[in-house]
Design goal:
Rossmann fold; six-stranded mixed sheet; alpha/beta; 246 residues
């Protein structure tokens, strides 16, 4: 299975944000690098079906993002992890993750069981009865990932999941995300931190709404000396004023 992004463009009014992006994503971890405002959040929102394309197509396993009849199936196959929680923080952690599973079509009993497994995986089983507001920022980020994987998605989309975390928690989250990629999940992760991309299977660099690089970490290092140097040389500081908030 692969995820095909074909000639995708997007505009907010007269402002062009994405410009004819074509990309094939396969099982494993693909990191999308780019400066703030490059269009990363907009592209992720399109893949996660939060926005509709201005032009182009996205498809996977004979399902089309442009076909209304396919959207329910697509959404049940996608795990979406935004930058921050937009829920009632008085909810208990297990209830929040279970509810997210139910929203993806699971029965109440199945989502409750899957929530326990997801929280175990992200290291939050001991905090399952705590309220979300009692968790640290890093723990809230892990709760978001648990909610994103509770229904065992085949495509996982994460927007800046390590932003603001200390190096220890960043490494821990990246290890967990890489494990999912090795299990056959198509993981698309946006970040502006080039050091996070070291362990990715593939790296894309987005600049000014265009995909300016798509290669393995080893290939980028061979050509530019390091991933961070490739980022410096290829990425501009263009602002994406219309990008959707995470």
């Amino acid at each position: 299975m692969s995820l095909l992004i074909s000639d995708v463009s997007f505009s907010y009014g007269t402002r062009s944000v994405l410009r004819r992006v074509t990309w094939e994503l396969n099982p494993g971890v693909t990191m999308l690098l780019g400066p703030n405002g490059a269009g990363k959040s907009t592209l992720l929102a399109l893949v996660a079906t939060r926005l509709a394309m201005t032009a182009g197509s996205i498809s996977s396993d004979k399902l089309s993002w442009s076909a209304p009849g396919d959207l329910m199936t697509i959404r049940r196959r996608i795990g979406w992890v935004p930058q921050s929680l937009d829920v009632d923080r008085a909810m208990r952690v297990h209830d929040f993750v279970s509810y997210c599973g139910w929203l993806r079509g699971m029965s109440s009993r199945a989502s409750a069981a899957a929530a326990g497994q997801a929280l175990e995986r992200v290291g939050l089983a001991a905090r399952r009865k705590d309220r979300i507001k009692a968790l640290s920022g890093g723990m809230q980020r892990r709760a978001l990932i648990a909610a994103g994987i509770v229904h065992s998605p085949s495509i996982l989309v994460l927007d800046e999941p390590t932003a603001g975390l200390d190096p220890k928690h960043r490494r821990s989250l990246n290890t967990m995300i890489n494990d999912l990629g090795r299990e056959g999940v198509i993981v698309l992760l946006a970040t502006h931190l080039s050091e996070d991309a070291e362990s990715a299977d593939w790296i894309g660099i987005l600049s000014g709404g265009s995909l300016v690089a798509n290669d393995t970490p080893a290939a980028l290092k061979a050509e530019y000396g390091s991933i961070s140097q490739a980022y410096v040389e290829l990425a501009s500081d263009d602002e994406d004023a219309g990008a959707v908030p995470a």
